[in-house]
Amino acid sequence: MSGLRSVESTVVARAAAIILVVANHAMFGVSLHGGLNALLILSGLALAQFGFGRTTGDALRAMARIGLRIAVPSFLVALVWQIAVGQISVPELGFYSNWLYKSRVALFPIWFAQAFSQLLIVLALLFFVTGMGERIARRPLAWVSGLYGLGAAVALTSYLTWDTTYYADKLPHLIAWNFAFGWLIWAVRKRVPGPAGGGILTAVLAVSIATLYLTVDAASGPTRAMLLPLIVLPVIWSDRIALPTLLARATIVASQATLFIFLFHYYAFWAVWRVGRLVGLEAESQNPWLRVVVGMVGPILLWALWTAMLRVYRRGYSLWSPAARPG
């Protein structure tokens, strides 16, 4: 197809999810929640693809990689900001403030990194004690379905017995089913490929959303119920999506820069507000559309600079390494 480029559906979904996160924080005056939930599902799918199907050790190493990839940068960004503003929060840096209060010192939603890290620690212990990696390798659909059902049941039980409004539902056991649904996508594709598998996953997602977002008092449940499927269903039903070439390139870049956008979009908002205040355009600097653009473009430029620096470093290291020297 002329003028079109095929892009992996997970790449498109990741870009759409992070854009939704930025738009939600840009303050359009309406709830736009669901982006972080979609990112959790995509993270679960990636973990299953690269860590499941072999041994428990492989699964644990995949969990460590994905966990450290978000926890370490989140800790460093929060630490630098807290030092800069002269307000050190031990619970926040200790990654347990999401269990204490909703407020935060760091501008970015560090609760997500905290809850995700806590979830991975519990899952790692479960896998280590039970040898779950080998169990999944032998019977992927059965064990993954069981784990998904457990995660959904824990979330439902919590909603029915414990009012977590004070925490804005930013707790690991309430997002575990999102992560496990990514595993379920992997397992169903492995055992029930094609339209039948897509139908099963769509039905499970619909029932889960109705149960865990609409029938209980979940934070921004109706919004998540509406927006989450728009991002996840294309992943369920298609491996690749054809986009106009220019849009495809922008989508790939946004997907690759997702972590930087997550970490720095609030700081981009803050920088624009500071500049606007200095030049007498404070109200204009809070325009949500401007915040979305700056919240995407600023972190992407930072990501591009970082990746360029890494390439230069690696090229220089390879040139000066002993293996590269003659004789």
Topology summary:
Layout: E1 4-8, H1 9-25, H2 35-51, H3 56-85, H4 90-93, H5 110-130, H6 132-138, H7 140-161, H8 172-191, H9 195-214, H10 221-237, E2 240-244, H11 245-256, H12 258-278, H13 288-320
Antiparallel strand pairs: 1-2
Helix pairs in contact: 1-2, 1-10, 1-11, 1-12, 2-3, 2-8, 2-10, 3-5, 5-8, 6-7, 7-8, 8-9, 9-10, 12-13
Tell me what you see in this structure.
- The protein has helices at 9-25, 35-51, 56-85, 90-93, 110-130, 132-138, 140-161, 172-191, 195-214, 221-237, 245-256, 258-278, 288-320, and strands at 4-8, 240-244.
- It is built from 13 helices and two strands, in the order E-H-H-H-H-H-H-H-H-H-H-E-H-H-H.
- The protein is globular.
- It has 327 residues and is mainly alpha-helical.
- It has one domain (4-256).
- The chain is 74% helix and 3% strand.
Summarize the structure in short.
With 327 residues, this protein is mainly α.
Question: Keywords, please?
Answer:
two-stranded antiparallel ribbon, mainly alpha, 2 strands, 327 residues
